[in-house]
């Protein structure tokens, strides 16, 4: 499946849009392929090591139990005691591996700041009036290394989504899946837990703004509100400043905010009565063909953008990296953006509905189901 994602990225995006000038155009799918592969390998490793650790703990506990005259557990038969030891060892191993996954989640989002050329700060010589950080710089560890951790733009490679910079959400997904599938939970318990964790992550995000940690945009804002109060916390200067977060690569603040919204949405949609959910057919249609929707929407909106820019576009103040010419867009015309979005969704709805029916005829392990 990782290979299929990489092939789809090359066939549908790099070849037609790169036009022979680019050999790798990574707009999410290539990064997703890498993380899918690494996530699968990590899942296999966790399954193997969890069983091995459980066996080791059971063996150690049983050995210590045999050395005393009276059993530590008050079971009259050895069989009951053995089952209790096995259950204890399994629980310990399960929790230890959950802790490992949580640690890896934190480490793999934190290394985006550790590897940042300026550790999340913009150089002090940033031109006043700039509204964001300068283009990404090299880590001085080579172009190959930078490709995996930084947004890069080379002569033959354009990759705004560095694969290993997005590994953290994939590992968090493994941890979430282990917990949800560990037992049969009541719907209320899952929804309440999603809501509580969403609120917890939102608090973390607020703290990144107040305490200046986990950001890749420190000293980067040069908007009028920052220039008017140079000594003030840049994130508290205005509403838009507070929600200024870096996605290329994702910062810890970005991860906290977006995952908070994801968990809150999970809680909201999980709490919707089935009768209400069935009255939202478009939402169910898109959700049941999410990856197909993502790929189709990229192709559709790329195509629509040419028409929209021809009719409503104007020249912008930066260069288009694909053409090397001044970029053309509809900046300052939000109505055009909203109308384009809605028209695109109306086109995608029947396409996703057809694909959902098509893939339902395939086996559960079919690659078509993956999309």
Short summary:
The chain has helices at residues 2-18, 29-66, 78-114, 143-149, 167-181, 187-211, 224-228, 239-242, 252-271, 274-277, 281-287, 290-312, 334-359, 367-370, and strands at 24-25, 152-153, 157-159, 314-319, 326-329.
Structural description of this entry:
The protein has helices at 2-18, 29-66, 78-114, 143-149, 167-181, 187-211, 224-228, 239-242, 252-271, 274-277, 281-287, 290-312, 334-359, 367-370, and strands at 24-25, 152-153, 157-159, 314-319, 326-329. It has 371 residues and is mainly alpha-helical. The strands form two sheets. A three-stranded mixed β-sheet has the order 1-3-2. 22% of the residues are buried.
- Over the alpha carbons, how many angstroms does the gyration radius reach? 25 Å
Task: Give me the number of helical elements.
Answer: 14
Oligomeric nature of the chains: single chain
Strand tally, please?
5
What low-confidence regions span 5 or more consecutive residues with pLDDT below 50? 128-136
Give the neighbour order of strands across the main sheet: 1-3-2
Bulk shape: globular
What are the key terms here?
371 residues; mainly alpha; three-stranded mixed beta sheet; two-stranded antiparallel sheet; 5 strands; 63% helix
What is the topological layout?
Layout (H helix, E strand, L loop, with lengths): L1 H17 L5 E2 L3 H38 L11 H37 L28 H7 L2 E2 L3 E3 L7 H15 L5 H25 L12 H5 L10 H4 L9 H20 L2 H4 L3 H7 L2 H23 L1 E6 L6 E4 L4 H26 L7 H4 L1
Parallel strand pairs: 1-3
Antiparallel strand pairs: 2-3, 4-5
């Amino acid at each position: 499946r990782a290979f299929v994602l990489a092939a789809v990225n090359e066939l549908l995006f790099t070849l037609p849009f790169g036009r022979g000038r680019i050999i790798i155009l990574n707009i999410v799918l290539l990064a997703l392929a890498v993380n899918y592969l690494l996530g699968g390998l990590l899942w296999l490793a966790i399954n193997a090591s969890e069983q091995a650790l459980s066996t080791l703990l059971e063996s150690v506990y049983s050995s210590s139990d045999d050395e005393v005259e009276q059993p530590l557990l008050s079971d009259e038969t050895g069989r009951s005691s053995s089952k209790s030891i096995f259950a204890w060892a399994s629980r310990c191993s399960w929790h230890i591996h959950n802790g490992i996954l949580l640690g890896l989640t934190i480490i793999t989002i934190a290394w985006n700041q550790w590897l940042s050329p300026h550790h999340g700060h913009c150089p002090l010589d940033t031109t006043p009036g700039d509204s964001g950080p300068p283009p990404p710089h090299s880590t001085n560890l080579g172009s190959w290394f930078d490709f995996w951790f930084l947004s890069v733009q080379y002569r033959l490679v354009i990759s705004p989504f560095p694969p290993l910079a997005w590994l953290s959400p994939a590992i968090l997904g493994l941890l979430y899946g282990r917990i949800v599938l560990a037992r049969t939970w009541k719907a209320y318990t899952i929804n309440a837990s999603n809501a509580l964790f969403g609120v917890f992550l939102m608090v973390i995000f607020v703290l990144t703004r107040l305490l200046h940690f986990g950001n890749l945009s420190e000293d980067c804002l040069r908007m009028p509100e920052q220039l008017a109060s140079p000594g003030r916390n840049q994130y508290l200067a205005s509403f838009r400043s507070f929600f200024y977060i870096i996605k290329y690569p994702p910062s810890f603040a970005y991860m906290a905010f977006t995952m908070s919204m994801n968990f809150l949405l999970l809680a909201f949609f999980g709490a919707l009565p089935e009768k209400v959910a069935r009255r939202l057919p478009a939402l169910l249609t898109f959700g049941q063909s999410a990856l197909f929707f993502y790929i189709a929407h990229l192709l559709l909106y790329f195509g629509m953008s040419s028409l929209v820019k021809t009719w409503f576009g104007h020249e912008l103040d930066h260069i288009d990296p694909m053409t090397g010419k001044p970029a053309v867009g509809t900046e300052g015309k939000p109505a055009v953006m909203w109308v384009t979005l809605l028209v695109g969704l109306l086109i995608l709805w029947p396409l996703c509905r057809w694909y959902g029916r098509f893939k339902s005829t395939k086996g559960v392990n079919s690659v078509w189901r993956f999309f």
